[in-house]
Known about the structure:
The structure holds two protein chains of two kinds.
Chain A: E1 2-5, H1 9-18, E2 26-29, H2 38-57
Parallel strand pairs in A: 1-2
Chain B: H1 9-18, H2 32-42, E1 49-53, E2 58-61, H3 62-72, H4 79-89, H5 96-101, E3 107-113, H6 116-119, H7 134-149, E4 172-174, E5 197-203, E6 207-210, H8 217-232, H9 238-241, E7 247-251, H10 253-261, H11 266-276, E8 278-280, E9 294-296, E10 304-308, E11 315-320, E12 332-335
Parallel strand pairs in B: 3-4, 7-10
Antiparallel strand pairs in B: 1-2, 3-5, 5-12, 6-11, 7-11, 8-9
Helix pairs in contact in B: 2-3, 3-7, 8-10, 8-11
Amino acid sequence: xxxxxxxxxxxxxxxxxxxxxxxxxxxxxxxxxxxxxxxxxxxxxxxxxxxxxxxxxxxxxxxxx
Amino acid sequence: xxxxxxxxxxxxxxxxxxxxxxxxxxxxxxxxxxxxxxxxxxxxxxxxxxxxxxxxxxxxxxxxxxxxxxxxxxxxxxxxxxxxxxxxxxxxxxxxxxxxxxxxxxxxxxxxxxxxxxxxxxxxxxxxxxxxxxxxxxxxxxxxxxxxxxxxxxxxxxxxxxxxxxxxxxxxxxxxxxxxxxxxxxxxxxxxxxxxxxxxxxxxxxxxxxxxxxxxxxxxxxxxxxxxxxxxxxxxxxxxxxxxxxxxxxxxxxxxxxxxxxxxxxxxxxxxxxxxxxxxxxxxxxxxxxxxxxxxxxxxxxxxxxxxxxxxxxxxxxxxxxxxxxxxxxxxxxxxxxxxxxxxxx
Lengths: 65, 346
């Protein structure tokens, strides 16, 4: 699972292809991440964690916690 | 190596441009005989890889670098310098893969110092960063073409610079040691006076720093230091906002002489500038990078790389660094082997 900010979506795919992992799934984050506050990062992590967990487990997001 | 075919040179130019293999300017078509000659000039095995270049992960073989050198129009004798510069940018501390991908406007600034400057006719004086200087122009261009065709850095897909800067075509400067009151630049990096050295740093475009001396040495010393510090850690620069990076300070001979007359060695100047480059971390202009307290823009005095170049006059130059990436995009130096075991049929 690659975590990629929206601006780097194409770049993330490029790197994945170059690494021979073109099918690696991407999860998009809002851009930018750099320079955002610790509180904003924590809030983003809280929002994303269940979705990431669900994708990794292959289960519906509402069943992940 | 996958070789392309074309009916003639004009068709080859169009093919290379269409494939995204150029920098947008016409190139010398890298035919097999031209590439073979450049490989010979390296004195190295054509299949020798100097490392992996990101983000594409291509192997920077001597042959692939020879292709870039031919395309850029390099004289044969520059090939060992290109190999040394490539080794430098491939050092993990340089963070090339991340630098190729960043949204910041950064490019490898190539600094040349030592006997190679005169031997290969690198420009270090008036207009050294401008047009008309073949060694500077083609060496920087060759490294860029390598970064495009080996590293895969292409705008909007893998090179995410929001705007970039003209140094992304070529960005190479030599030290004007004969006009400098300080020991050779490479000596400040741990090399000897007789070493020929290439140093690379991820740098923004040069920013002009004007200072006109009044004739009062004490006032001028303080005034010039104020100007230089303001340029090195400009309030909107990455150096001031992110901190912990490096910067290049290019003194013109007049400014360097003034400081030397005031008793400054390179080391003392670096220390004085380090002390003056202090950032108020709590100012509003830092936006989400705002932090409590004050910080030095640079971790250590030696993170301000000082050399003399250009013509005499009012203007010195600062080249701030990107100062991001896992290693904060450190400057890297490599000695140049000027006597490779090549067998060029001169």
